[in-house]
Fold each of these.
Amino acid sequence: MVFMFHSKGPTFWELARQALSSTERGYDLLAPKFDFTPFRTPDAILTRVGEYLGTLGGFDAGLDVCCGTGAAMEMLRPHCRERVVGLDVSAGMLAQARVNTAGAPGEAVLEFVRGDAMRMPFEPVFDVAVCFGAFGHILPKDEPRFVNEIARVLRPGGRFVFVTSTMPPLWSLRYWVARGFNGAMHLRNLLVSPPFIMYYLTFLLPRAQQLLESAGFDVEVTDVQFEKPWTPLRLVTATRR
Ligand SMILES: C[S@@+](CC[C@H](N)C(=O)[O-])C[C@H]1O[C@@H](n2cnc3c(N)ncnc32)[C@H](O)[C@@H]1O
C-alpha cells in the first residue's frame, strides 16, 4: 500500500477517490485520517496565533469557520469565556472535531455546526472568528461574499484573525507547485462533476486586505513571526468597525 504523508494517513488511492468526490464528500471520506495529512493546520502556526490572541484580552464567543477536525477550536477555547463554535460543511470532519476537542483546555462550551461558510446560520454574536487552511475552498469570485458573511456574524469591534501570505515570487518553487496543482484541479473540475473546490494562492495580501476594508473592517497585518518553513505567513487581524 502506498501511504501518503504518514503510515496512518490516506493511501494514494484513498486520496485519489477523495479528490474525485465533491468537496463535502471528499472531506467526509478523509476525516478519520485528516490529522495525518499536511492539510491539517500545524500546531506551530496555531500556537503562535494562540499567543497573539492571548494578548487581546479574551473573548466571550469564538467561531472557527471551516473548523475541520477542530485544531483551531482547541487553540481558541482557552481564550473564550462562553462558547466556541466550529462550523464546517462536512459531517465527517465535525464528528472527528468532536472527538479531538473533547479534552481541550478551557471552560467555553464547544458547539459543532454543519453549514456553509458562505451562508452561516448565525446572528452577529461572535467577538472573534478564525479560519485556517480553508481559503482555497472559496473561489476568488466568491471572496467578497465570504468577507461580508464574516462581517455579518461578528459583533461591532469583533475580530477576524487569520494567516495568509503575499504572492510567492514567480521564480520560486512554491509558486510553480501551486500553479501546477491549480491547473490539475481546473482540469479535474472540467471533466468531473460535482467539483472539488481547492485552489492554492487565494485570499492573498494585498487583495484580502482590500476586500476586508471594503466590507467594513480595519485591517492590521501584524509583525508576528512564524518559524520555518512558515516564515512567509502573515497574521492578519481585521476588526469590524
Ligand atoms: C483543509 S481543511 C482545514 C480544516 C481546519 N481548519 C484546519 O486548519 O486544520 C478545510 C475544511 O473546510 C471545510 N469546508 C470547505 N468548504 C466549506 C464551506 N463552503 N463551508 C464550510 N466548510 C467548508 C472542509 O469540509 C474542511 O473541513
Amino acid sequence: MNRVIIIGGGIGGAATALALSRAGFEPVVYERTKGLREVGAGIALWANATHILNNLGLLEEAKQVGYLTTNYQFNSQHGKELVNVAINGFELPVIGIHRAELHQLLWRKVPSENLILGEIFERFERKNNQVHAYFASGMSVEGDALIGADGLRSRVRAAILGDEPPTYRNFKTWRGLTNHVPSGYHPGYIQEFLGCGKGFGFMMLGKGKMYWYAAATAIEAQSDAAMGRKKELETMYQDWFSSIPELITATDEANILTTDLYDRPPIQPWSQQNITLVGDAAHPMLPAMGQGACTALEDAYVVAKCLKEQPDPIAAFQQYESLRSPRTQAIVKQSLQSGKMGELKNPLAVGLRNTFMKVMGSAISDSFKSLHAYRA
Ligand SMILES: Cc1cc2nc3c(=O)[nH]c(=O)nc-3n(C[C@H](O)[C@H](O)[C@H](O)COP(=O)(O)OP(=O)(O)OC[C@H]3O[C@@H](n4cnc5c(N)ncnc54)[C@H](O)[C@@H]3O)c2cc1C
C-alpha cells in the first residue's frame, strides 16, 4: 500500500497530501483548476487546528504570516458585549490567517510532482483491489486507495453515497478584506455582532489585513441588489456599531465575496472499501463555529496516521472514520444550531437570545473551550 490518489487540492487535499508524504506514502493530488488558488478571505485556526500545523512542522511559519488572536467576543448589533471568550488559554495559539497564506504554506512542503492541475475527476472503478480514477481529459490513473477532498459538491462522495444535493440553510454571506483598522477594534479580538436575521464579524489577519464577514437570511442564489453589493451592505448595516459601516466603506467592492451557505445532514459510513472522504466532501458544515477548514486539517492528520498504522487501506479507512465521525457529526449539528440562532428576526426573540447569551456566558465559553481543546 503506497500510492494514494487524492481528488481536490483545497485546504483538505493539500493537508492530506502533506500528512501522507510525511508518513512515507506517495500521494498524488488531482485538482480541477489550472492554478492553485484560494478565495480572498480569512480564517481562524483554533488550537485544535494549530495542533495539526504543529505536528506537520508548520506552526512557526503560520505564526509569522498570521496574527495571534486572544479573545472571541459576541456583542449586540450596537456593540454591547454579550459574551467574551478567552481563547488563548491553551498550550497552542489561535491564529487569524489569510486562506491563501494557509494554502500556500501547506503546498510549499508537498513535492511539486505530487500535484497535477487541470484534471477534473469523473468516476472510478475497482479492479483487483486497485482503484482506477478517470478524468474528463481522458486520463486515467491507478492507486491503492483514493481520498475524495473535492469539497461540498464532491463527485467522489456522489459516486459512493449517491448524488443528493447539499441543503441550503437560508443564509447568504459576504466576506471582505481591507487594510483599514476600524477605530473600535480591540487588538487580538474576533468581534461579532448579532442583530435581527443578520450578523457581522471582523478579525485581524497577518500583514495588517482586516477580514470581515456578514451573514443575513436570504433566498437561495439571491443576486446582488441593483445598487451593488457594497452599497447594499452599507445600507443594511448603517446603524450598527460604528466599526462596521467604517469597514464596509473602506473595502473595495472587488474585495467583497458572496457565498450561499449549505451543509449536509451527517451520514455514516462515508468510506467504501479503499475509498474515503475528508473535509467538506465528508462533513460540510455551516461556518458558525469556524471549524470547516480546521476539521479538514484534523481529518488529514488522522487519515495519514491510520494508514501508517494499518497497511490495509480498508481497515485504515474504517478506523479513520470511527475516529472522525463522532466529532465532526457533533460540530455539524452545533454549527447548524448556532446558525439558527442567527435566523431570529423578531425583536423580542432577538432580545431574549441576547439575554440568554449574557446569562449563559460561562457555558458558551466552556463549549468553545472543549471544541478547541480536542487534540487529534
Ligand atoms: C463564508 C464561509 C466562511 C468560512 N469560515 C471558516 C473559518 O473561519 N474557519 C474554518 O475552519 N472554516 C471556515 N469555512 C469552511 C471552509 O472554507 C471549508 O470547510 C474548507 O475550505 C473545506 O476545505 P476542503 O479542502 O474540504 O474543500 P474545498 O476548499 O471546497 O476544496 C475542494 C477542492 O476540490 C476541487 N475539486 C472539486 N471537484 C473536483 C473534481 N471533480 N476534480 C478535481 N478537483 C475537484 C476544487 O477545485 C477545490 O480546490 C468557511 C466557509 C464559508 C462558506
